[in-house]
Amino acid sequence: MHALTVESLRKRYDDQEVVKDISFSVAAGECFGLLGPNGAGKTTTLRCCLGHTEPDAGSVHIGGLAIARHARAARARVGVVAQFDNLDVHFTVAENLSVYARYFGLTQRQSLALVPRLLEFAGLAEKADAKIETLSGGMKRRLMVARALVNDPDMLFLDEPTTGLDPQARHLIWDRLRSFVGGGRTIVLTTHFMDEVQRLCDRVAIMERGALIAIDSPAAMIAREIEPVVIEVHGAAMPRWVEQHGRGLAARVEIAGDTAFCYCRDPEPLLRTLDATQSLRAVQRAANLEDVFLKLTGRDLRD
Predict the structure, then answer these.
(1) What are residue 131's DSSP bridge partners?
(2) 4-222 has which fold?
(3) What is the DSSP letter of 14?
(4) What confidence tens digit (pLDDT) does each residue in 64-87 have?
(5) For 141, what's the count of Cα atoms within 13 Å in the CB-facing half-sphere?
(6) Where are the domains of the chain?
(7) What does the pLDDT look like over 110-148, one tens digit per residue?
(8) Which pTM was predicted?
């Protein structure tokens, strides 16, 4: 049985169809990434999955339970970390966990026994009595992840869980999420950080303007969509160099601002021309998921 099954999901607001007949499934014990530019339909899809938004067509099942008929029972086995901070500022760190636990039917004794374990999980054992406004952004996000675990869920839905965090906080949250999946649980994750997806996700789906345009493991998607080597070229002479050498020697060239992205299978001929052009700076790297994302969705800014 799949942990999550989405079949032929559609949602329209006025004259705009924001989710267009998408289908996918997530296996138990899998970390699944749902990616897309702003406005692609990711958050609406998550809201439909959780029963917070009623779709116009299609179905969602969590753990075999149809959301349309059993939303409350399905959500009882799910933890959710929202995109924005929704902690209760009137409670301490520990109280945010213990009070939330009561919503799931835990007794006071059960919730008080649970809190120390969750604080340890979040690296907040020394902050139990602290007020929410005294916490850093990283501490708040870690507390929200811990709070999502109070009902011992089989699945976590995470909407951009590390936005705005420094590298240390991001790595700690990644470590905690890996341990969650390592215990046989399931994660559905949205994020704009492609390195986060490559570190955490077993498979990823990319949405564009409400449609599902690609789904696969990150490694398979990179191998299928992008040449293996990328050379980023900067400098005032870049436009002339691209026309003289880059377009002839690279499999594909994309220009964004003052940078030319040259996608290559054999980078050596191109690198030799760069060695002879002292006014240019170049960085060679392996292709990554961000390259795939930009190829499939474009480099234009989205509101």
Answers:
(1) 92
(2) Rossmann fold (3.40.50)
(3) T
(4) 999 989 988 998 899 999 888 899
(5) 23
(6) 4-222, 227-286
(7) 988 999 999 998 889 999 999 999 999 889 989 999 999
(8) 0.90
